[in-house]
Amino acid sequence: MAKRDSKTGAANRVGKSRPGAAAADDTRITALKLPAQPLSPEMAAYFAKCEEKLGFVPNVLKAYAFDMTKLGTFAAMYNDLMLAPSGLSKLEREMIAVAVSAHNRCYYCLVAHGAAVRQLSGDPPLGELIVMNYRAARLSPRERAMLDFAVKVTAEPWLVEEEDRARLRHAGFADRDIWDIAAVAGFFNMTNRVASATDMRPNSVYHRQSR
Amino acid sequence: MAKRDSKTGAANRVGKSRPGAAAADDTRITALKLPAQPLSPEMAAYFAKCEEKLGFVPNVLKAYAFDMTKLGTFAAMYNDLMLAPSGLSKLEREMIAVAVSAHNRCYYCLVAHGAAVRQLSGDPPLGELIVMNYRAARLSPRERAMLDFAVKVTAEPWLVEEEDRARLRHAGFADRDIWDIAAVAGFFNMTNRVASATDMRPNSVYHRQSR
Amino acid sequence: MAKRDSKTGAANRVGKSRPGAAAADDTRITALKLPAQPLSPEMAAYFAKCEEKLGFVPNVLKAYAFDMTKLGTFAAMYNDLMLAPSGLSKLEREMIAVAVSAHNRCYYCLVAHGAAVRQLSGDPPLGELIVMNYRAARLSPRERAMLDFAVKVTAEPWLVEEEDRARLRHAGFADRDIWDIAAVAGFFNMTNRVASATDMRPNSVYHRQSR
Amino acid sequence: MAKRDSKTGAANRVGKSRPGAAAADDTRITALKLPAQPLSPEMAAYFAKCEEKLGFVPNVLKAYAFDMTKLGTFAAMYNDLMLAPSGLSKLEREMIAVAVSAHNRCYYCLVAHGAAVRQLSGDPPLGELIVMNYRAARLSPRERAMLDFAVKVTAEPWLVEEEDRARLRHAGFADRDIWDIAAVAGFFNMTNRVASATDMRPNSVYHRQSR
Amino acid sequence: MAKRDSKTGAANRVGKSRPGAAAADDTRITALKLPAQPLSPEMAAYFAKCEEKLGFVPNVLKAYAFDMTKLGTFAAMYNDLMLAPSGLSKLEREMIAVAVSAHNRCYYCLVAHGAAVRQLSGDPPLGELIVMNYRAARLSPRERAMLDFAVKVTAEPWLVEEEDRARLRHAGFADRDIWDIAAVAGFFNMTNRVASATDMRPNSVYHRQSR
Amino acid sequence: MAKRDSKTGAANRVGKSRPGAAAADDTRITALKLPAQPLSPEMAAYFAKCEEKLGFVPNVLKAYAFDMTKLGTFAAMYNDLMLAPSGLSKLEREMIAVAVSAHNRCYYCLVAHGAAVRQLSGDPPLGELIVMNYRAARLSPRERAMLDFAVKVTAEPWLVEEEDRARLRHAGFADRDIWDIAAVAGFFNMTNRVASATDMRPNSVYHRQSR
Fold first, then answer.
1. Which burial class, exposed, middle or buried, applies to B1 when counting CB atoms under 10 A from its CB (0-12, 13-18, 19+)?
2. Helix D107-121 and helix D90-103: axis angle, to 10°?
3. Beta-carbon neighbour count of residue E205 at 10 Å?
């Protein structure tokens, strides 16, 4: 029977009776049993570069490591979209990643890319805001138009029409930028679903980054 | 015209051209101009207690301070629901607050009560998880049943029926506990809407708490 | 096996085989077994005043009577919001109550506050209309703007922005009025959920009032 | 500027400054200007029968009277579905009409068929309940299965599958009854939309019937 | 266990192990066992005319043939709405049928009326487009306004207001045309639901027509 | 003013006054002006292979040809997912493509992959059915479980949990197959959005294939 007095409830019932919420996230990366394959030389170099630059290999890469072709095509597309030259800054691309992932309520992507927004912007509350509700953030008209488009194409892609693209052009985006907004929003609509479908867990280190 | 090279994008375009996302949150608390009234002795004591215990007065209390009756009734209901003895621990009540506020995407409540979950649980990722998607958290059956009920009564209250209450009883909740789950979920459905309707901003200090 | 002839169907199958739809609503007020506590002197006086003015004690008050603190805080907030001086008339506040409860399809609140709209307006069809679809009512621009805001903050609070408040100001509402619209809408979003979560039943007398 | 004191708000602002909500409903039946044609002998007899039995001609018939073929086909289908022998009682068919119209929030149909449920059942609160939320009514398993099917086929017809029909059979419905449930639900999904598209207004007399 | 090599997957697993998707559609017309009644002379003539003009009797007519009154009222309403003189061309009425049925994802109506759009327009891709997403079609302003209204009244009839009718008038539609758009959209909201509720199957011949 | 007689409506108003619905789809491939770059040797070989095998280069490849890196990463991921060995047959992967694209109402992907389902299955109505409503198709339990998962992860990825994966395992899918279902569903959630955001048009030849 439930106790009436909750003074010690948190400590007694919850705090001690279970491990931390992210406890197993670094060891049981997805709900699928897919044994990692030996890394190809190219992927071994990529993992080494991650370790060097980030201090760890993102769990999504480990999740794809059961198949070198899949790992390679995923990494190639990710790196082109998020890191190659673009009319969108890296921060803007990460903001799209988080706004899309917030609509889709994707744990993995919100943790990993929320950290990226905090770090690239040097403004931790900005990362929080886009996770929670980007409409409550004080965004520039350019940023707002960009996220409105990315979220509309996420939520109701069948309603996107010329006037939506016109709004982006009015906010200063070139056609190539519109492609990039669509491509980044599209990419996270893919990864959100792969992550949710497989219960992919983010590296626990992200939670503490850039707070 | 947009630049193709984004190497310095974050720093140039965003980092320097705007203040932090939470910059004005402590000075412009809502979008309404409602001058604060002199605090009644009771409310002055309450504010002093907040300063002493928390180190600050939560912005929601300042937002209600244009009218002592409204401030008083809000504080009385809040304190009874969230702090008085109950079959639900304080952490459980805060978990409900966050799960409901996540459904409603309420910036104020997610920031303030997300911090409370981090602090009461001693497990920062748990706070993150419930903000993002409580279904991805590794909850006890009791916690999961509690949040499923709170979110259903938030999202589609017209569909709640006896079998939903039966599920709570099966998970060990007494009738009084069911009332408390409903009352806490109901309360945050109220405050989420007052906060969203008035663009209420959380104290910036919450962002860094218990990380 | 089902009969083909329905001539006497209504009388035979339904009318006689079950009690009226509101038959038990005055005796089994919620689905929870929460024994009433002795009324505090303040609450006893309040109940007596209800009996005197209305001829009965609203079931919602009886439902809260298992705990004098919860009854007291609920009654205090209700009375301030719905009866204290405001830029909104009492009828306008009841119209918000009904429009919000219609969105949430809350039996208790639609019955009790639908009756209030019928009575305060002296126009029974107005109460019906707001229960069914307030958009079909012939409202003044002020009333329509008020209900549009209340229903948007009910249905999609995360989408409320400055332009929604601007629309209210354009319709003549002061900032204090906007608070009151938000607070009344928020309050019924709370009570709708407490009522739905507990299957709260309205006093049967409401059904016949002000027809 | 809005007044702070609302004591006389209802009377001053609303009650006197506008006509009743149903004031024009008997004279301006739809938002379209479609002059009535001379009634055919068959339709003249039908209208006379309505006057005799009901005391009035339902506005929906007047709305269709701009074209005798459309009036005739509508009346023929309505009379077959709602009045001809069926495994469903007339009350059951009216309950479907109201539950479907409640989902679609159709003013005309809720007023007219809500009155029919009150009258046929001899239980006014039953009519109220189905307008508000049929799930809160104390229905027999047969009635509940029938309305669940009718509302599912209204809200998400693309999800109806064999297991939905199996549930009806389990509740005692024959295949012919299932057709009738589908046909009545379908019919009101048609009329709800014609009524909403044209702003069709119900005869004001319905509001007071069978209270 | 699943094979890794899929080279012959399509042929082996699917192509040979099951009949064509429309194989039984001409023999098992609905999921209900409702024996056909002898055709009345009027209906026998109607069926003969279908055979003569179309080469077959549409399955929907066979589905209604368990009851001559229901068959007759359905056929009369259908023929008036879709074939009688109107300000809407027959193609326009079929376009409404398909756009409404696409929203409701109705297999029967999309197959039968998609074929009609292909045939009447002489433009097969137009039929495809309206099945898939009418917003992607290059429609005239008149057609677009017509389908926007039909789909809004299908998806959210409770939101239709005077400004929606004004948009139709602005696009050149007379009040009588607005009625016809509403009536055709309403009719398919009915038949979509009867078809989905009974799993009605279209004549297989439609699939190959006017490609 | 609109004419009352529609006998010649289709021919007069629509058929002659506009080009076919797919008329410009092969020349104006997206709404963005992004000049094609010279093909890299690898991509030139790929395009030549498309011409040889299909008789044309799919428009999506032409749309990506403004940037060789983006074209290459897209083609590599597509070819791995849809053509490489997998526990899913090629037809099954195309069925997922169409079911996902039907939920997202994506013109490009429904046309191109609907044709692929028609061709690979040798059963044109199967392609139609999945475009319209896969739930109306007579699928094997394996196919149905696969599409239910793909559509749930498309529509509400945040609700996917272990019991959804368990259902796939129960239907005979290995963990590697579950990954592939998720990956193909995810991929089309990406391409649907890139296509909708840019108004990408399918090669007109698809419409007539495998009918």
1. exposed
2. 150
3. 16
What number of residues does chain F have?
211
Instruction: Say if residues E147 and E134 touch (Cβ distance below 8 Å).
Output: yes
Rounded to the nearest 5 degrees, what angle is found at the Cα of C121, between the Cα atoms of C115 and C123? 80
- The percent helix, strand, coil of chain B (3-state, each to 5) is 65, 0, 35
Q: Which two tokens stand for residue D194?
A: 């014609």
Other residues' Cβ atoms within 10 Å of the Cβ of residue B128 = 26
Residue A130 · residue A102 · CB < 8 Å? yes
Alpha-carbon distance of C204 to C54, in angstroms, equals 13
Closest listed residue to residue D69, CA positions, set E86, E64, E177, F6? E86
φ/ψ of E70, rounded to 5, equals: -65, -40
pTM attached to this predicted model: 0.94
CA E127, E128, E130: angle at the middle one, nearest 5?
A: 70
Alpha-carbon dihedral C12, C17, C20, C23, rounded to 10 degrees: 170
**Nearest CA distance, E55 vs chain A (angstrom):** 37
Cα separation of F15 and F6, whole Å?
13
- Chain F residues inside the 8 Å CB shell of A157: 104-106, 192-193, 196-197
Q: How many CB atoms lie within 10 A of CB E172?
A: 15
> CA–CA separation, F30 vs F59, rounded Å?
9
Q: Report helix, strand or coil for C186.
A: helix
Q: Which of C45, C53, C107, C90 is nearest to C71 (CA)?
A: C45
Q: For residue B12, give the amino acid letter.
A: N
For residues A85-108, give the mean pLDDT: 98
3-state SS, residue F150: helix
- Partners of C4 on chain D (C-beta within 8 Å) are 85-87
Separation of alpha carbons B72 and C76, rounded Å: 9
Q: Which residues are within 8 A (CB) of A180 and not within 5 positions of it... i.e. 6 or more apart?
A: A81, A86, A87, A88, A93
Coil, strand or helix: which one is B114?
A: helix
Packing angle between helix D68-83 and helix D41-54, nearest 10 degrees?
50
Q: Which residue has the tokens 């609503």?
A: C25
Write the DSSP assignment of chain D as a string of letters: ---S--TTHIIIIIITTS--TTTTTTT--SSS--PPPPPPHHHHHHHHHHHHHHSS--HHHHHHTT-HHHHHHHHHHHHHHHHS--SS-HHHHHHHHHHHHHHTT-HHHHHHHHHHHHHHHT-HHHHHHHHHHGGGS---HHHHHHHHHHHHHHH-GGG--HHHHHHHHHTT--HHHHHHHHHHHHHHHHHHHHHHHHT----GGGGGTT-
Tell me which chain A residue has its CA closest to the CA of residue F187.
A190
| Cα distance between residue F144 and residue D83, in whole Å | 41
Q: What is the pLDDT of residues E3-39, one digit of tens each?
A: 434 443 443 444 455 689 998 999 999 999 999 999 9
* pLDDT tens digits, one per residue of F142-177: 999 999 999 999 999 999 999 999 999 999 999 999
Which residue of chain A is at minimal alpha-carbon distance from C159?
Answer: A135
> How far apart, in whole angstroms, are the C-alpha atoms of residue E144 and residue F199?
17
Angle at the Cα of C48 (from C47 to C54), degrees rounded to 5?
A: 85
ipTM of the complex: 0.93
The Cα of A99 is separated from the nearest Cα of chain E by a number of Å equal to 25
Comparing C15 with A155, which gets the higher pLDDT?
A155
- List, in order, residues 6 or more apart from B195 with CB less than 8 Å away: B60, B106, B107, B108, B109
Contacts of A53 (CB under 8 A, 6+ apart): none
Task: Return mean pLDDT, chain B.
Answer: 93
Question: Partners for C (CB, 8 Å, 3+ pairs)?
Answer: A, B, D, E
Of F76, F149, F193, the CB nearest to A73: F76
Q: What is the pLDDT of residue C13?
A: 46
Q: How far apart are CA F175 and CA B37, in angstroms?
A: 63
**CA-to-CA dists, residue E149 to D14, D154, E45, E80, E157, angstroms:** 33, 19, 36, 21, 10
- Residues A69 and F180: their CA atoms lie apart, in Å, by 13
